[in-house]
Amino acid sequence: MWQLPPAATMRQRFLSFLASTEPAPKPRGSHLRPPSASLAASATMSRNQVVIKATPVGPAEAHYTQYTIICSQPGSYQWWVAFRRYSEFVTFRKQCSKALKGVQKSDHAQALSPFTDSLVALGRCPFPPKHFIVDDAEILAERKAGLAIFVEHVLSSYDDARRLVTMLGVAQRGLVEAWLRLATAFLVVPPDARTSRRRHTTLCAADAVCSICLGSIDDKGDDDKRSAGAVFETKCHHHYHRKCILPWLEKTQTCPMCRHRVVSGRWY
């Protein structure tokens, strides 16, 4: 049974992501590179950025590796975090294969052909193999690289399915909506990110000041005064300077203004 890691562990991983720009490790073999004909050529692929981090969990006799999935959509300034084990990736991949067979046998297969193509490409995406030995550094590097590519393809298929479902009739969209629910649950996609649309925030007078340092937050995007990503907006729509909120989150994962838990949000 999958369980959430301790709050302190989640906080540390969360802060590590915010404070670093560590690139994903290179794959062990060339078989992990996405083929040129795959969804890697899709426009939606370029808008999704995925980082996978691996953490050993549990005592030596019951050890397993937990993968932290950090997803971001630069076009919409959305990001979120999910936690999964390798076996859960395998299960989800099988569920996608089952969904593909259901679509191919459907009475609406012709209308759903774009969705079929998307799932076929997802099934062809390189996937790290299962190993029967303890996860060593080489295996972890291979899996982190391969799973990141897989999640990027899932997000591309997700965006494509979201667009397609708006063009389908009520009788045709059932299978697409079922897969969207499946992918949403697996990646723990927050509501704001599901719309895949860029949202510009208008700061009110109260939010124009960082409540931590009481300094002003300039929303005009003056590149000479503020670099991209210098301001954070929490899910509760409060805004802080990056340099101010990071030290705060080292102590607690709550919003300084309203005390809501901070596990996702956007930067600009």
From TrEMBL:
Domain of life: Eukaryota
Source organism of this protein record: Saprolegnia diclina (strain VS20)
The PX domain, residue ranges: 45-187
Main location: membrane
SMART domains: RING (SM00184)
Enzyme Commission identifier(s): 2.3.2.27
Keyword Mitochondrion: no
Class in the EC hierarchy, top level: transferase
Keyword Transferase: yes
SUPFAM superfamilies from the UniProt entry: PX domain (SSF64268), RING/U-box (SSF57850)
UniProt entry keywords in alphabetical sequence: Membrane, Metal-binding, Transferase, Transmembrane, Transmembrane helix, Ubl conjugation pathway, Zinc, Zinc-finger
InterPro entries, A to Z: PX_dom (IPR001683), PX_dom_sf (IPR036871), Znf_RING (IPR001841), Znf_RING/FYVE/PHD (IPR013083)
Catalytic reaction equation(s): S-ubiquitinyl-[E2 ubiquitin-conjugating enzyme]-L-cysteine + [acceptor protein]-L-lysine = [E2 ubiquitin-conjugating enzyme]-L-cysteine + N(6)-ubiquitinyl-[acceptor protein]-L-lysine
Compartment(s): Membrane
PANTHER family to which the protein is assigned, alphabetical: RING-TYPE DOMAIN-CONTAINING PROTEIN, TARGET OF ERK KINASE MPK-1
GO MF entries: phosphatidylinositol binding; ubiquitin protein ligase activity; zinc ion binding
Name assigned to this protein: RING-type E3 ubiquitin transferase
Record membrane topology: Multi-pass membrane protein
GO CC terms, sorted: membrane
